[in-house]
Write a structure and sequence with these properties.
Layout: H1 10-20, E1 33-36, E2 45-49, H2 54-62, E3 67-70, H3 87-98, E4 101-104, H4 106-111, H5 116-122, E5 127-131, E6 144-151, H6 155-164, E7 178-187, E8 202-214, H7 219-229, E9 237-241, E10 254-263, H8 264-275, E11 281-283, E12 289-299, H9 304-309, E13 314-319, H10 322-330, E14 334-337, H11 348-358, E15 363-366
Parallel strand pairs: 2-3, 2-15, 3-4, 12-13, 13-14
Antiparallel strand pairs: 1-4, 5-10, 6-8, 6-9, 7-8, 10-12, 11-14
Helix pairs in contact: 6-7
C-alpha cells in the first residue's frame, strides 16, 4: 500500500519556499513572501505561475487550487483600497473571496543558491559560476555591538541584565559576549558621587571589557539594563554598527567563467536550448569569443557594472533599453536579450520538482494560462 502524505499547512509551504528562496535575500525594493493569507488549515493543490493575471486566477479557481505561488509579486506597489479599479485590486479581491493563499519568491529565488540565476548561468556551458554581487547575511540581532567597562565583581550581573534585555543573541545562543581585563581610571569632580574611591582623587579599578551584539529593536532596553545593573554613576557606553558579512554563493546575478571559450553564436544557441526559444537578440560589441558571461533573469541592466567588474565579455538578461544596450557595447560588453519572462518561466518545472520533493502531500501544477504578454507576428 502506498503511504499517503498529509496535506501541508500554509505555514509549512511558506517555510519550504523560504528554504528554497530565503526571503531575506530579496532586493530591498521587492515584496516577497506570503502576500495573501488564508483561513484554510491545509493546502492540497498549488498552482505555479510567473504572473497572476485574471486568466490565471480563473484557472486556479476552476482547478480548485487552494494556493498560488506567483514568481512576480501580484502586490507590488502599496494598495490603499480594494475596489475594482485595476487588475491588482480585482485579482486580490477575488482570490481573498475564494480563500486562496498567495506567495511570491521573485528576487529571493533569483539570488538563492541553486535558484533561477544559477540555473540560467549553467546554460552557458561548463564553467565556474559565482554571484556577480554577493548577498549580505541577514543578522537583525547582530546589527550593533555594545561596549562597556565594568568593575570585575559586577561583570556577570551586567552581562545577565543585558542578555535579558535582548543583547548577546547569536542564532540559537544567548548571553554571547566577549570580555577582557584591564585597569580603568577616573577622577570625579566635586559634584560626583563615585561608587569606588573618593571624589577629587584619581582612582584605578580592575575592570572587565564587556562586548555584546545587539539588534536595533533591542538597543534601548539593553542600554537601560546596562545602566541599571552597572555600579558606576556614569557607566562608559560605546555603540558600534557592524557590517554584515557577505554570503559566498548567493546574490543578484551570476557570472560563468567558461572552461572553454565559445563563440557568441554557440552561447546564444545554448541559451535558446535551455529557454526553448527560436531566437535571442544579440548586440555583440565586436566580440566573437566569450570566456566569461554574466546573467540575470528578467530585467538586469542594474548589474551591467557588476558584470564588467567581474571581467565578463557578455551579459544575458531578459530586457534592456536601447540606450542601455548601446552603453554596454561602448564599454566592450556584448549583450544578449531573451525576453523578460522568457528567462523566468522555463524555471517553473524545476521549482515544481523542488517543492514536490519537500511537500509530497501537495499536488503542484504549472499554469497553462500564464504566458508572455508579447508575441512576434
Amino acid at each position: 500500500m502506498v503511504k499517503k502524505h498529509p496535506h501541508p499547512t500554509p505555514s509549512e509551504v511558506e517555510r519550504v519556499l523560504d528554504r528554497i528562496a530565503p526571503f531575506h535575500l530579496a532586493e530591498e525594493w521587492d515584496n516577497v513572501g506570503v502576500l495573501l493569507a488564508t483561513s484554510r488549515k491545509r493546502l492540497a493543490r498549488l498552482l505555479l505561475t510567473i504572473d497572476l493575471t485574471e486568466a490565471v486566477l480563473d484557472e486556479a479557481i476552476s482547478s480548485r487550487a487552494e494556493g498560488i505561488i506567483a514568481y512576480h509579486p501580484p502586490i507590488f506597489a502599496p494598495i490603499k483600497r480594494l475596489a475594482d479599479r485595476d487588475r491588482t485590486e480585482r485579482t486580490m479581491r477575488r482570490a481573498a473571496a475564494e480563500g486562496i493563499w498567495i506567495a511570491s519568491p521573485h528576487t529571493a529565488l533569483d539570488a538563492a543558491p541553486g535558484g533561477l540565476n544559477d540555473w540560467l548561468a549553467e546554460a552557458a556551458g561548463e564553467g565556474e559560476i559565482a554571484p556577480l554581487t554577493h548577498a549580505i547575511e541577514h543578522r537583525p540581532d547582530q546589527a550593533l555591538k555594545i561596549l562597556t567597562y565594568v568593575p570585575t565583581p559586577s561583570l556577570d550581573a551586567v552581562r545577565a541584565a543585558m542578555a535579558a534585555a535582548g543583547a548577546g543573541r547569536i542564532g540559537e545562543y544567548s548571553h554571547c559576549s566577549f570580555t577582557g581585563s584591564g585597569k580603568g581610571t577616573f577622577l570625579g569632580s566635586e559634584g560626583s558621587n563615585p561608587v569606588v574611591g573618593r571624589r577629587g582623587r584619581l582612582e584605578s579599578v580592575e575592570e572587565g571589557r564587556l562586548e555584546m551584539v545587539c539588534g536595533d529593536a533591542a538597543l534601548p532596553a539593553a542600554i537601560a539594563a546596562l545602566r541599571a545593573a552597572h555600579p558606576y554613576e556614569e557607566p562608559p557606553i560605546k555603540i558600534h554598527r557592524l557590517e554584515a558579512p557577505p554570503i559566498a554563493d548567493a546574490g543578484p546575478g551570476r557570472r560563468n567563467a567558461l572552461r572553454r571559450a565559445a563563440s557568441i553564436a554557440d552561447v546564444a544557441d545554448r541559451f535558446k536550448a535551455r529557454l526553448g526559444l527560436d531566437g535571442i537578440e544579440v548586440a555583440d560589441a565586436g566580440r566573437r569569443r566569450i570566456e566569461r558571461i554574466g546573467v540575470c533573469a528578467g530585467s538586469g541592466s542594474s548589474l551591467v557594472d557588476a558584470a564588467l567588474a567581474a571581467g565578463c565579455d557578455a551579459f544575458l538578461t531578459g530586457e534592456m533599453s536601447h540606450h542601455q544596450v548601446l552603453e554596454a557595447n561602448e564599454r566592450g560588453l556584448a549583450v544578449l536579450l531573451a525576453g523578460h519572462t522568457s528567462t523566468e518561466r522555463p524555471y517553473l518545472p524545476t521549482l515544481a520538482r523542488r517543492l514536490r520533493s519537500a511537500l509530497p502531500g501537495l499536488a503542484i501544477r504549472i499554469s497553462r494560462r500564464d504566458r508572455d504578454p508579447l508575441r512576434r507576428l
